[in-house]
TrEMBL record:
Disordered: annotated span: 1-21
Catalytic activity: ATP + H2O = ADP + phosphate + H(+)
Residue spans of biased composition, Basic residues class: 1-20
InterPro entries: DEAD/DEAH_box_helicase_dom (IPR011545), Helicase_ATP-bd (IPR014001), P-loop_NTPase (IPR027417), RNA-helicase_DEAD-box_CS (IPR000629), RNA_helicase_DEAD_Q_motif (IPR014014)
Family recorded in the similarity comment: Belongs to the DEAD box helicase family.
Presence of the UniProt keyword Nucleotide-binding in the record: yes
Stated name of the protein: ATP-dependent RNA helicase
Organism, scientific name: Cylicostephanus goldi
Enzyme category, top tier: hydrolase
Gene3D superfamilies: P-loop containing nucleotide triphosphate hydrolases
Pfam families referenced in this protein's UniProt entry, alphabetically: DEAD
Amino acid sequence: MDAYRVKKKHRFKKMGKEKKLRKEDGEKELQTVIDKCKDLAKVNPSTLKRFTDIPLSSKTLQGLEECDYEEPTDIQRESLPFSLSGSDVVGAAKTGSGKTLALIIPVLECLWKAGWSNFGGLGALIISPTRELALQTFTVINNVGKHHDFSCALLIGGTDVDYERKRIGTVNIIICTPGRLLQHMDENEHLSCDQLQILVLDEADRILDMGFSQQVSAEFSIFLYSSLYCPHFLVLFSCFGV
């Protein structure tokens, strides 16, 4: 029995040391990425040939690699240096240009840099004009971000609103359509944007053309001023052409 207790004690001690080392390595990686992102906006986009040329977390890079994303597209090379360095971004890109990934990467990196976890509450909100686009974004962010400790919810019409209502207070990232978002804001007391870190309005022109201009503008004031102590980033992407 004594030998067993000694062995168990040594095992827990070893696990404690390994956990401490992982934490220290994570802190070093975080600071390295943050430092490199400070001057990223000054970098010539043409030099960013691969995603490994961009200062990203190892978790995001691993997700990109496993999804076979190796080389950034033009919109990704042009926008990521600004969004990753903390700037607000207004971008325009054609369908199929890699716009979705250009939105998702800053969301993952923003929450990672902020030390977000499953218990952090809502940190990112992505608004898409259609159910199909919202579902596409939801699928990609779950695949690329699977190594991060974030939870994600999809709020769209045609699904169980009661199920959404129960989950909404526990997720870190929400991807939604404007109508569904406004419904939850009117009916769901668990939806809180007090800790919001990043707001993404995908295909902004389509959302505003759908008659949500006044409502969305009103919600912006809530998102941007809900907390004076947390950073808020607004990333707008307008889709044009086919």
